C-alpha cells in the first residue's frame, strides 16, 4: 500500500541555503514515522517528485527554501493557491513547488493536498552548507513537520477537523 502522506525535501545543496529542504528531509528520514508516511529528499529532481506523487498520496508536505522577504531563517507554512496561473513545466533543474504541482496536474495526477514549509534563505550563492540562521531553523522545522504530519493523519482518519494554518512559524 502506498503511503498517505509524502514529506518531500527539495532544493540544491550546491546553492547554500537552497539545501534547506534536503537537510530537513535527511534529518526526518532518520526518525520514526507511521507506515503510511514516506519521507524522502528529492533535491532538484522535480520531475521525479511529480511522478512519485502519481502513486496516490493524499497529502504532500514540501520543504524548501523560499524567499518571501522576511528575516533569514523565518519558517513559513502555507497551502499554495492551486488556482493561480500555471508555472512553466519543470525540467531536470527546476524544483519550484508550483511547477511540480502543475506538472503533476498535466500528467492527470490524483488530487493531492499540498502544504509548503518554506524557510527564508540568507544566501543562494554557490556554496555548500547552510547559513547560520537557516541552519538554526532546521530542528524547529523538523518538529513542525512532525506536528503537520500528526494533524494530517488525524484529518485523513476523520478524527479531527483540518486546523487552520498560521502562515508563519519561527
Describe the structure.
This protein is α/β, with parallel strands linked by helices. The chain has a single domain (about 5-170), classed as 3-Layer(aba) Sandwich (Rossmann fold). It has helices at about 20-30, 45-55, 95-105, 130-135, 140-155; strands at about 5-10, 35-45, 60-65, 75-80, 115-120, 170. It has a 6-stranded mixed beta sheet with strand order 2-1-3-5-4-6, with helices on both faces. Helix 1 (about 20-30) links the parallel strand 1 (about 5-10) and strand 2. The protein is globular. The model has no long low-confidence stretch (mean pLDDT about 85).
Lay out the secondary structure.
Layout: E1 5-10, H1 20-29, E2 37-43, H2 46-53, E3 59-65, E4 75-78, H3 97-106, E5 113-119, H4 132-136, H5 138-156, E6 168-169
Parallel strand pairs: 1-2, 1-3, 3-5
Antiparallel strand pairs: 4-5, 4-6
Helix pairs in contact: 1-5, 2-3
Q: Top keywords for this entry?
A:
170 residues; alpha/beta; Rossmann fold
Proportion of residues in β-strands: 15-25%
Could you estimate the helical fraction of the residues in percent?
25-40%
Question: How many angstroms separate the termini?
Answer: 35 Å
**DSSP summary: helix tally:** 5
For the biggest sheet, the summary is: 6 strands, mixed
Shape field: globular
Amino acid at each position: 500500500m502506498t503511503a498517505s502522506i509524502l514529506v518531500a525535501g527539495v532544493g540544491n545543496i550546491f546553492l547554500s541555503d537552497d539545501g534547506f529542504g534536503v537537510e530537513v528531509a535527511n534529518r526526518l528520514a532518520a526518525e520514526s514515522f507511521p507506515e503510511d508516511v514516506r519521507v524522502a529528499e528529492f533535491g532538484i529532481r522535480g520531475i521525479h517528485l511529480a511522478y512519485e506523487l502519481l502513486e496516490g498520496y493524499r497529502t504532500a508536505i514540501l520543504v524548501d527554501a523560499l524567499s518571501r522577504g522576511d528575516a533569514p531563517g523565518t519558517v513559513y507554512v502555507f497551502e499554495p493557491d492551486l488556482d493561480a496561473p500555471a508555472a512553466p513545466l519543470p525540467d531536470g533543474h527546476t524544483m519550484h513547488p508550483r511547477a511540480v504541482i502543475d506538472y503533476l496536474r498535466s500528467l492527470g495526477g490524483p488530487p493531492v493536498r499540498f502544504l509548503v514549509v518554506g524557510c527564508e534563505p540568507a544566501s543562494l550563492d554557490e556554496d555548500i552548507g547552510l547559513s547560520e540562521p537557516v541552519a538554526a531553523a532546521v530542528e524547529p522545522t523538523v518538529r513542525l513537520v512532525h506536528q503537520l504530519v500528526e494533524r494530517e493523519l488525524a484529518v485523513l482518519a476523520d478524527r479531527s477537523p483540518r486546523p487552520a494554518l498560521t502562515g508563519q512559524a519561527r
